[in-house]
Design goal:
The protein is mainly alpha-helical. It has helices spanning about 10-25, 40-45, 45-50, 55-60, 70-75, 90-100, 120-135, 140-160, and strands at about 30-35, 60-65, 80, 105, 115.
Length: about 160
């Protein structure tokens, strides 16, 4: 659900993460939905060329969509959120995702205790996706309980430091 207008918040890295998770667990990943990406998936030759190299795309398990209202889209279409940022280590979207209890696989260094944090290693982040597939639902009550305290710490950090 990144804006996909520059490399700061761009969908290609999460698509690679989803690709590796899909290769490991193809039956567990029904669909990769990339929002805010319709414009590049239809108009950018370079993006189209790269994305068409992925098995998840070849197997018709990926769609590239327009913009959506975040809470509605999450509640109607999402099981796991995979996000990526570059030099933008905090995004209010991450807070919203975790507050609502969705597993967030991310690399945001200012909120490493939220969701399923992992640095920029694609393979390691794909493993976090598989971890979320395997354990998130069974640990949802714990996730929600700890997320609220962690969100409060992140919000206090934002308020005090910025």
């Amino acid at each position: 659900m990144e804006p996909n207008i520059n490399v700061v918040k761009f969908c290609f890295y999460p698509a690679l993460i989803a690709e590796l998770a899909y290769r490991e667990r193809p039956d567990d990943i029904k669909l990769l939905q990339v929002t805010n990406a319709q414009h590049i998936a239809t108009n950018c030759k370079e993006f189209i060329s790269l994305i068409n190299q992925l098995d998840i795309v070849h197997n018709h398990k990926a769609v590239f969509l327009g913009r959506f209202d975040t809470p509605t889209y999450l509640s109607e279409h999402t099981d796991i959120v995979v996000s990526h940022q570059w030099e933008n280590p905090l995004n209010y979207f991450y807070l919203e995702v975790c507050w609502q209890g969705y597993p967030l696989v991310h690399n945001a260094t200012l909120c490493t205790d939220l969701g399923y944090y992992q640095d920029n290693n694609v393979s390691d982040r794909a493993r976090r996706v598989v971890e979320a597939i395997d354990f998130h639902d069974s640990q949802l009550a714990q996730y929600l309980g700890t997320s609220s305290a962690r969100l409060l710490r992140v919000i206090c950090r934002i308020t005090l430091n910025w």
